[in-house]
Amino acid sequence: MSALGTLPLTWPEPGIALLTLSRPQALNALSDDMVAELSARLDALVAERQLRVLILTGAGRAFCAGFDLSLAAAAPGEDDEGAAAAWSLRQERFAALVTKLRGLRAPVIAAVNGSANGAGLALALGAEIRFAARSARFNAAFVKVGMTGCDMGVSWLLPRCIGSSRSFEILLTGRMVDADEAERIGLVSATVPDDQLLPRALATAREIVANDAFAVWMTKRGAWANLEAPGLAQAIELENRSQILARGTGALQRAAEALLARRRNRA
């Protein structure tokens, strides 16, 4: 895949794709066209067998400043469908981006540079792993403009990431969370200097790529599924079956044989 429109996709290393939100003049705020393009990109990546890890970042001074408020006066097709129907379709298209990230077989790493507001926060939360540049700033922006801060899955994802009390406080105030606080409360795995953001994301991506692809896929699916499991017993049931599926790939047997061979060589 090559660069296209507002979402250039590159492959810095085998198995590792870098998808860049690239509308820097608008701080990578999401327009309807950009949402459609991102949705198509993610759909295509579902079938991309060489993809092992996806890194998502932003061009310029921001990760993603959220919904492009210059489009707030109307939604596409509003004249034909009516305001409620048009805005419902827009809302569903935006929110579907988060479930599409989750639906990829490959883990997603959000490399957050600069602002991650509203929809930008949601995209970051849709990733399995987040790293923040020193310039990163997070907030649930919509509550500041008369809309609910519960948007694009944030009200489900954020409390599971940082706990309910901190989540309520951030959602209700709409305040900015800087990179240091984000690391302290567990919103991101680490904060690094801006020029080290992509190298850090790539280093973690390499560690993931070094593992068996099926095992990584099952780990991603199992960990997400068990966030919704009603109890420990149900979580263990899923884990047990996933382990049996993974054993069927032969990777465990190959690892055991390699270990035995190393022991024989040392003897």
Key features of this structure:
alpha/beta, six-stranded mixed sheet, 2-enoyl-CoA Hydratase, Chain A, domain 1, globular, 267 residues
Low-pLDDT segments: none
Residues in helices, as a percent range: 40-55%
CATH topology name of the largest domain, in short, is 2-enoyl-CoA Hydratase, Chain A, domain 1
Radius of gyration: 20 Å
Instruction: Name the CATH class of the largest domain.
Output: Alpha Beta
Order of helices and strands: EEHEEHHEEHEEHHEHEHHHH
Arithmetic mean of pLDDT? 93
End-to-end distance, in Å? Answer: 49 Å
Q: Indicate the proportion of strand residues.
A: 15-25%
Strand order of the largest sheet: 1-2-3-5-7-10
Total DSSP E strands: 10
Overall, the morphology is globular
Number of domains: 2
Structural class: alpha/beta
CATH level-two architecture of the largest domain: Alpha-Beta Complex
The major beta sheet can be summarized as: 6 strands, mixed
Q: What is the CATH H-level superfamily of the largest domain?
A: 2-enoyl-CoA Hydratase, Chain A, domain 1
What would a concise description of this structure say?
The chain has 267 residues and is α/β, with parallel strands linked by helices. The protein has eleven helices and ten strands.
Write up this protein.
With 267 residues, this protein is α/β, with parallel strands linked by helices. The protein folds into 2 domains: 9-209, 2-enoyl-CoA Hydratase, Chain A, domain 1 (Alpha-Beta Complex); 213-266. It contains 11 helices and 10 strands. It has helices at residues 32-46, 78-81, 83-103, 119-126, 154-162, 164-173, 179-184, 197-209, 213-227, 232-247, 251-266; strands at residues 9-13, 16-21, 53-58, 62-64, 108-112, 115-117, 129-133, 137-139, 177-178, 190-192. Strand 1 (9-13) and strand 2 form a beta hairpin.
